[in-house]
Amino acid sequence: MSERAGFRSAFRRWRADRPFWGGLLLALGGAEVLLTMKASVKVMLHAGMQGLAGYLLPTLMVLLGLLILFNPAQRLFYSITGVLLALGTWLTSNLGGFFVGLLLGIVGSCLAFGWLPDQAPRERRRRRRLRLRLRLRKEAVVVAAAQQAGEPA
Prior knowledge:
Layout: H1 2-16, H2 20-37, H3 52-70, H4 75-92, H5 94-98, H6 100-114, H7 123-149
C-alpha cells in the first residue's frame, strides 16, 4: 500500500511541474485524428489530401503533445505549432477527425500555452480553508461540550 502511495505522490509532483492536461489533450487529439484516418470509406466525410499530409499532421500533434509533457521548457513553441497543426487537420484529415480531434488539439495547445511554471500558491484560498477548518473544530468542541453537559445540540 505504501508503494502505491509513493508512486501516486511522485506522479503528482511530476505532473505539477509541467502542463500535463494540455500535452495529454493535444496527444489525444492527434491520436483521434489518426484513428479517423483509418476509418472505412462509408464513415469518412472528407478524404482530404490522402498523401503524406493526412498522416503527418496528426502524427506531429501526438509528438508535440509528448514533447510538451517531457520537455515543458519549450511549451510555447510546441503549443503554437500544435494549434497550427490542429487547424491544418481540418483540411487534410476528415475535417479534423470529425471535429473531435481538432477541438482536443486546440484546447490542449491553449492549456499548454497558458500554463505558468512556478506559480505562487494561492495564499488567500489556503487561509480561507484554514479558517473554515478552525471554525468547524470550534463548533465541534462546543457541540461535544454541550452534549456532555446534557444540553441538546
